[in-house]
Design brief:
The complex is a heterodimer. The longest helix of chain A is centred in the N-terminal third of the chain and has 20 residues. Chain A starts with 10 loop residues before the first helix and ends in a 6-residue tail after the last strand. Chain A is built from 3 helices and 5 strands. Chain B contains 21 helices and no strands. Classes of the chains: A alpha+beta, B mainly alpha. The interface between A and B is medium-sized, with 26 and 26 residues.
């Protein structure tokens, strides 16, 4: 069974870390990541950039609506996520619109990835 | 992280929201600060035992309002807060469950007001910066004094005087209309940029004391963007600061001398800040409402995207400086465009552009530095030498002067015509 571990924290606090504090946390995490990867248990992991860099595509209407900022509603739940490679926000919005056409309703929150860990290869 | 570090970070990050609400409640900076301090002390006593509340800012606001500070004033001037219809009669140290999470958007005008108070037009730039660092960021007077290289007593006096001045600006407390809101946003953005520059433009020797100012400015810019998530200029400002700050690790050599952008080791640039800056530039562009911060951030983005200095997209940078000239014309912007023109189309075109700027920029270090290098490139060496000497005389730091001296050394040896230029510059 694969599991997704979703990371929540107070963004104001994390953004207030000094570079040294941030580096220290990342270094401690890297130790855990490395061990998990050796055991073949680590899939891809991503640290997202702050929500100020987020854009939301509301796909509960046609055409979908692009809004600045993170997805703020609480009546919908997080049901999945994609990691895609795109050259610009325009391109990732294009991809999102295509996905939205196939699966309307709800919203996509688009967050640039700041730090990406490939994890271990399956098998 | 130790308990104290962790609590300090939480209190610091909750401060702007909490202070913003308290300033509105008390309508007085000192009373708000005192009440906030009380609440922080209570937090330090109770959080380690009880654990932190889910929403530290909301907790601090309630505890501060109930701290008994300034009862009389509060009774006289009390104005309803957005969450005032929630019963808060019995505030224990535990979180009151009825209180919903504070949404920054509810406090948008409060936070903007708190920042705007610091940019009172009568305050000189240095006082605006000092006040913002004290009131919004919560830096200690000692820390601010160190950043400005003055004594603590002098800084204390400066801040007290600045506070007295803004206290009279009572109309700040009225809810702003749309036009006033956008004026406030512009003033606050300029103040945040001042804070950043105070940290960023410091020579290396002062970097340890002034460095935190750049981080603080980025925090303020992000805060501004949180309360105005769809405002492209707020995106532009944040992006500009992030993209410039990303270069920090590459800006000085081991001896503390400044390294020019073209000569920096780009592998040292902080990629996470660049990624965030580029994402914000992208977001802002979608709005098709360009403004000065967006244009400057787009220029910084082109530098960040170039893997080597030679790979820089100078024609695009020239276009962007042209756009910046249209929205906020100034001789300095034209000078910057000329630098891009020189790279894109050669020194002769650049020289033609900046020669008319001489009267307005005659005391500007960078003007003479640019003149010197364009003149050298078209082979007018004597005049180049004169311009470089003029630049050295106007240099703000030994690093700037030594950079120009290296440019001078690169010129072919002077044809020793009786040295009118040399003599003039020895006396200057």
């Amino acid at each position: 069974m694969q599991y997704a571990i979703l990371c929540y924290h107070d963004e104001k606090v994390v953004c207030a870390w000094s570079k040294e504090e941030d580096d220290a946390v990342m270094a401690k995490l890297a130790v855990v990541h490395q061990r998990l990867a050796q055991e073949g248990k680590l899939g891809p992991a991503a640290r997202l950039l702050p929500t100020t860099a987020a854009t939301t595509l509301r796909k509960d209407r046609e055409p979908p609506l692009v809004l600045d900022g993170p997805f703020a509603e609480t009546k919908e739940q997080l049901l999945g996520f994609y990691i895609v490679e795109a050259a610009s926000l325009e391109e990732v919005l294009e991809i999102s619109r295509e996905l939205a056409a196939a699966n309307p309703g709800g919203a996509y929150e688009i967050r640039p990835v700041g730090h990406f860990v490939d994890g271990s290869k399956p098998g | 992280m130790s308990n104290a570090d962790w609590m300090g970070t939480v209190l610091m990050s909750a401060r702007p929201t909490a202070m913003a609400a308290l300033v509105r409640y008390f309508r007085d900076l000192d009373a708000a600060e005192e009440a906030f301090q009380e609440a922080c002390l209570r937090a330090l006593r109770t959080w380690p035992g009880n654990g932190p509340p889910r929403d530290p800012a909301a907790w601090l606001i309630m505890v501060a309002r109930n701290s008994g500070i300034d009862h009389a004033r509060r009774a006289r001037r009390h104005v309803a807060l957005p969450d005032d219809d929630v019963a808060i009669s019995d505030v224990s140290d535990q979180e009151v469950p009825a209180v919903e999470r504070i949404d920054a958007a509810d406090y948008r005008d409060d936070i903007l007001r708190l920042m705007f108070i610091c940019c009172h037009p009568e305050l000189p730039a240095t006082q605006q910066i000092a006040l913002a660092l004290r009131i919004v960021s919560g830096l200690s007077v000692a820390q601010i004094a160190r950043a400005f290289l003055v004594s603590e007593a002098a800084m204390e006096q400066r801040i007290t005087r600045a506070k007295a001045r803004v206290a009279k600006a009572a109309r700040t407390f009225e809810t702003p209309g749309a036009v006033e809101r956008s004026e406030r946003l512009a003033a606050v953005a300029a103040m945040v940029y001042l804070v950043f520059n105070e940290g960023y433009s410091a020579p290396h020797a002062d970097a340890a004391d002034k460095g935190p100012l750049a981080d603080e400015a980025i925090r303020l810019a992000r805060l501004l963007l949180q309360i105005f998530p769809a405002e492209p200029e707020a995106m532009g400002l944040t992006a500009l600061l992030l993209l410039q700050h990303a270069r920090a690790p590459a800006r000085f050599d081991a001896a503390g001398e400044a390294i020019l952008l073209a000569d920096q080791d780009r592998r040292l640039w902080r990629q996470s800040l660049i990624a965030e800056g580029l994402a914000l530039v992208d977001k802002a562009m979608r709005h098709r409402r360009p403004g000065p911060y967006q244009i400057q951030s787009a220029i910084a983005a082109l530098h960040a995207r170039a893997e080597t200095a030679d790979a820089t997209d100078w024609p695009q940078i020239e276009l962007l400086y042209g756009a910046l000239e249209r929205v906020s014309p100034s001789p300095v912007v034209t000078l910057n465009r000329a630098v891009a023109v020189a790279k894109a189309r050669g020194p002769a075109a650049a020289l033609e552009m900046i020669e008319p700027l001489a009267p307005s920029l005659s005391n500007y270090f960078y003007f003479h530095g640019a003149m010197g290098s364009f003149l050298a490139d078209v082979g007018r060496l004597m005049e180049a030498r004169e311009a470089f000497n003029r630049a050295i005389a106007l240099a703000h730091s030994p690093a700037e002067a030594s950079h120009i001296r290296r440019e001078l050394d690169r010129l072919a040896p002077p044809q020793r015509k009786p040295g009118k230029v040399t003599i003039k510059n020895k006396s200057g």
